[in-house]
Design a protein that fits this description.
Layout: E1 4-15, E2 18-26, E3 43-50, H1 53-56, E4 64-70, H2 71-100, H3 103-112, H4 114-123, H5 125-131, E5 135-136
Antiparallel strand pairs: 1-2, 1-4, 2-3, 4-5
Length: 137
């Protein structure tokens, strides 16, 4: 099994030290013959920002490229986006329930605790953007 996540894409625009690449994200069954008539086959167009100087040099809009990220980067992004918030909610529910015995308060606080979490993620977006970056192969 490869430890890289790869997508074929087309360069949308090139800036100074960065570029935007359009990829087609599709579900595993999108290659099926009847996928056009099936709701399960899901395709989405995504725009990926690439901040790798070496990848950007010599590229122009319309170039076909392969966008690459490590599996570790993908897993870390999933952990920050879904895993940690889930743990935060579960811990908040159990601690609040144990301390107050009020289920409504526990449920409300478990959702409310996500607001500061995602605010912190938003404020750190520039640092995270560079850390969770793609390169071009």
């Amino acid at each position: 099994m490869s430890n890289k996540i790869k997508h074929q894409g087309v360069v949308e625009s090139v800036g100074e030290g960065s570029m935007k690449v359009r990829i087609m994200q599709s579900s595993a069954c999108s290659g099926c013959k009847v996928s056009a008539h099936c709701n399960a086959s899901d395709k989405k167009v995504k725009i990926i920002d690439i901040y790798d100087e070496a990848s950007v040099n010599g590229r122009k809009a319309g170039d076909v490229v392969t966008v690459v990220a490590t599996l570790e980067t993908g897993m870390r992004a999933v952990a920050i986006g879904f895993g940690l918030p889930f743990l935060l909610m579960v811990i908040t529910v159990f601690v609040t329930q144990k301390l107050t015995g009020n289920e409504t308060l526990a449920a409300g606080l478990s959702v409310a605790v996500l607001m500061p979490y995602y605010l912190i993620i938003y404020l750190m977006r520039e640092k995270l953007k560079r850390r969770f970056s793609f390169t071009v192969e």
